[in-house]
Design brief:
Blueprint (H helix, E strand, L loop, with lengths): L1 E5 L3 H12 L3 E6 L9 H4 L4 E4 L6 H10 L3 E4 L8 H11 L2 E4 L5 H17 L6 E8 L9 H12 L4 E2 L11 E8 L5 E8 L4 E8 L3 H14 L4 E3 L1 H4 L1
Parallel strand pairs: 1-2, 1-3, 3-4, 4-5, 5-11, 6-8, 7-8
Antiparallel strand pairs: 6-9, 9-10
């Protein structure tokens, strides 16, 4: 697999290491110093591009790859307002888009457990539900994309009024997301159901970036022969 990496920060370098370990090649690396080199010409012959940059630049990077008919795995969060636009562009241009708010296999299993837990807990109105997420101090978006995905999973089959604010829950009909930015923490996400009598928690902690990078590489290997729009549910 011949790859491009868009965003050569900590995640980009980790993805590069795993790609090389798995026998793939990295033919193009784009960062803030050579962003103008992300062109259709430079993307020619690239099987999959990995986009891990910033909320401000992600959509245009993804669009450039898709307009070239390319395939892109994107793990940047905080730009979901344009995700539908990119999905349509993938279909129109014959490219492929694989987006996930979190590429950790464990987190994606948590997403599935979270949806089922919400269904089971829904009849029990004595429980307040909230989400807590903690990331390193450099993460720009809050709440995190992973926390938002967890919230969406909870409300899918449940009639709840959502309130994504950093405050204590006031009643069982509100869903809160509390965000913390501390030190070097890669990512901790907890869904907590609390009553007057007990507490039920579903939690996942990422120990290092390799968990995310490996999932992204697996997504790229999956996407290399495909077109259209794909998610972790398709991969798993």
């Amino acid at each position: 697999m011949k790859c491009a990496i868009i965003g050569h920060g900590k995640m980009g370098r980790e993805i590069e290491n795993i790609l090389l370990q798995r026998g793939h090649s990295v033919a193009l690396i784009i960062d803030e110093h050579n962003s103008a080199e992300l062109t259709a010409e430079r993307l020619e012959g690239i099987d999959v591009a990995f986009e891990f940059t910033t909320p401000e630049t992600a959509a245009e990077n993804v669009a450039t790859v898709l307009r070239a008919g390319g395939r892109v795995v994107c793990g940047t969060t905080g730009w979901l307002a344009r995700l539908k636009e990119m999905e349509l562009l993938a279909e129109e241009c014959g490219g492929a888009l694989f987006y996930a708010s979190n590429f950790s296999i464990g987190v994606n299993m948590m997403f599935r457990l979270n949806r089922r837990l919400a269904e089971l807990m829904n009849p029990h109105e004595q429980y307040d539900v909230r989400i807590e997420e903690t990331h390193h101090i450099w993460k720009k978006d809050a709440p995190s994309g992973t926390a938002i995905t967890l919230a969406e999973g909870i409300i899918e089959g449940v009639e709840r009024k959502t309130s994504w604010v950093n405050a204590k829950p006031t009643c069982s009909s509100e869903l809160e997301i509390e965000s913390f930015r501390e030190g070097m923490t890669p990512g901790i996400h907890t869904v907590r159901y609390t009553s007057e009598d007990d507490v039920l928690e579903l939690s996942h902690s990422i120990l290092n970036r390799r968990a995310l990078a490996m999932g992204a590489v697996l997504a790229g290997e999956y996407l290399a022969s495909k077109s259209g729009v794909h998610t972790m549910d398709d991969l798993l």
